[in-house]
């Protein structure tokens, strides 16, 4: 691809807005392009049908995908330089009624926040989190809905721990940004480097901190709990709509209530609320200014209370299913 091609202009603008993804959606007459900024999907452009198909072909070619395969999902990646820095673009395709959709995830060379103190966490919540990190063992979950900034928070925490001289390892699929001082493992299930294989290997290298980019399946949940119970500090992100649902999600992945109680130090939960001055979704946006309809993340640190016993376990499940806050999770007011 050369600098004159339209997708490069789109990527340059996406980077300027710190967008996480660029969506290319086929319709009967055209391709619609959207940028994901935080939790907001911003309409960016509409490309004529033929030009959109050519754009998709160039993306697939750059990401080393099979150009002839249009019936099955594919994924790949490529690297391009902007303003003297290298960015990785992860391309995923999906067959749809009107052709292949492409979503391009942008992996930035540096985290948005370089340390824990720049996240905007209140002093009280940060003090609670710092006590967990200083303890040096057990599992700390960073939970929240999509687009709330979980990975950003994880990276900032890991960068802080690495600067303190701790031996920090990450297991990610994929590595989304470079963390100075950390050893980052880019998981590749196709090559046999699964989260379980990587965890077993990393634990032989005397780590102080092991981070899992995201707990997506039972294997990741098992190894995160296992490492936390063997004296390591483990951090991981988890998609969940509330702290109670984070516990429910762990149970769904096969981690018993007893094991959660023993392994889990606490949950840093993130949420974002709509801005009061948020414009209508169809309102025009000034050039270069995204209509971010949500404010910055709000951080709360929760610790696990008593979840032993089937009675409490059932109560937590019922509360989690209806979306409330389980009584087993309370704000951490004491060390």
From TrEMBL:
Pfam families: T2SSE. Keywords: ATP-binding, Nucleotide-binding. InterPro entries: P-loop_NTPase (IPR027417), T2SS/T4SS_dom (IPR001482). One of its GO terms (molecular function) is ATP hydrolysis activity. Residues 274-335 are annotated as: Disordered. Residues 10-268 form the Bacterial type II secretion system protein E domain. SUPFAM superfamilies: P-loop containing nucleoside triphosphate hydrolases (SSF52540). GO terms for cellular component: plasma membrane. It comes from the Bacteria. Belongs to the GSP E family. This is Type IV fimbrial assembly, ATPase PilB.
